[in-house]
């Protein structure tokens, strides 16, 4: 998050959803990067980072799943809001646009990977049948 993060502009649920998407995106990015690395030391390091990102993703996704049971309408609205504004990993870095394109063309993380992260999280949260979320699901 290179441009900073202002929690006062999002609701608490939007913040949880945003972080859950962010962490899962980074976990997928790191796993896909790890799969392309041949150097064993670097591969191990990136694998450890991916594992850490996956733990973060589980933690925040569990929180979102819980609030979906207690504040479903607000959670659906938060998912719509955050999914609509979610960008590719690194796209928040102004000088990184060419690298985002390189990462995408290398098959590490692209719009399809981002869409899969969003759709998978929505399904995991039990929200895939919500009409407001159809545009973000694979259905």
Write out the CATH superfamily name.
Answer: Ribonucleotide Reductase, subunit A
Strand content: under 5%
Low-pLDDT windows of residues:
none
Query: Mind describing the biggest β-sheet?
Result: none
- The count of DSSP E runs of length 2 or more, i.e. the number of strands, is 0
Q: Regarding quaternary structure, how should these chains be classified?
A: single chain
What's the shape? Answer: globular
The pLDDT mean sits at: 92
CATH class: Mainly Alpha
- Count of folded domains: 1
Secondary structure layout plus pairing:
Layout (H helix, E strand, L loop, with lengths): L11 H25 L3 H31 L1 H14 L11 H9 L5 H14 L15
Protein name: Ferritin-like domain-containing protein
GO molecular function: metal ion binding; stearoyl-[ACP] desaturase activity
Family: Belongs to the fatty acid desaturase type 2 family.
